[in-house]
Specification:
The chain is mainly beta. The protein is elongated, with a radius of gyration of 21 Å.
Length: about 280
């Protein structure tokens, strides 16, 4: 008899339906949480530098800031640039997108800031489409499933296995919610878990999940023990919140991003240029 869970348990990870807050299951380990996210690549048209030309490594945290108040800025982490696209006035910029990515409806000027100074601006931008890549699945090890998840897996149809939009809630050792990672999920496979006869290993399609960069793993593991709480750390921890703790769905008092307009995406895209 497989044990079921209908409420948030004491595991590190909780799989939650974002529409009705139903708990799909709770587990202690997830394969695929850390990895190398695909780097976003952008062409910034009619680039005008504000100082030296941008080339090579640009910065740990580079912000692209659309003109006006309609759209929020978005972050490129570990940003680099091969320089200007040959024979054009465009600058090519690559980096790890934050989980929301660029404002897809924006048409117009964008300024670039590295956290210290303005680097320049462009009249418009376009995302350069990456080559097709196989994304490894997300595997929840030793998952205690809810009855609803059990029923979906037993049914086994394409519609039943499409869990739609869910969030992976992540807690520290004291059970406090650190963050969650929303994504669209489909169950690919499941099997009895070696961690217990009443648990399963659930494999989810990983294409819509953005992994935490592998080099952030040590910092995340420090925060799993709990955030710094000594007086000298309050407000400015010695080890700042790792990437992903700021910018997730604001269930822990974090400020929400301004909502983005609904509707079909019209973000300009193009295939990679040759450098």
């Amino acid at each position: 008899m497989i044990r079921t869970v209908e409420h948030r348990g004491h595991g590190r990870f909780t799989l939650v339906d974002t529409e009705d807050d139903h708990v799909w299951g709770v587990c202690a380990a997830v394969d695929g949480l850390f990895g190398e996210p695909g780097r976003g690549t952008y062409e910034l048209f009619d680039w005008v530098p504000e100082g030296a030309e941008v080339r090579g490594w640009v910065g740990d945290r580079v912000w692209l800031v659309p003109d006006g108040d309609t759209f929020d800025a978005w972050l490129l982490a570990d940003a680099e640039s091969p320089g200007r696209h040959s024979g054009t006035s465009s600058l090519v910029l690559t980096g790890l997108d934050d989980y929301e990515g660029p404002p897809e409806e924006h048409r117009g000027r964008v300024r670039v800031h590295d956290g210290y100074r303005w680097l320049g601006s462009c009249a418009e931008f376009a995302r350069i489409l990456p080559p097709e890549q196989t994304t490894p699945p997300l595997v929840l090890r030793g998952l205690a499933p809810s009855r609803r998840l059990q029923a979906a897996l037993a049914k086994g149809t394409r519609r039943a296995l499409n869990l739609e939009e869910i969030a992976l809630e992540i807690r520290d050792d004291q059970g406090n919610l650190l963050t969650d990672r929303p994504f669209w999920a489909k169950a690919n496979a499941w099997r009895p878990s070696s961690t217990g006869t009443d648990l399963i290993d659930l494999e989810l399609e990983g294409g819509c999940f953005t992994p935490v960069p592998e080099h952030h793993r040590p910092l995340w593991e420090r925060w799993f023990a709990g955030p710094p709480d000594t007086p000298e750390h309050l407000g400015r921890p010695r080890h700042p919140a790792p990437q992903g703790l700021v910018g997730s769905r604001p269930r822990t008092g974090l400020p929400a991003r301004p909502p983005r307009p609904s509707g079909r995406s019209h973000l300009r895209t193009r295939r990679p240029p040759r450098y």
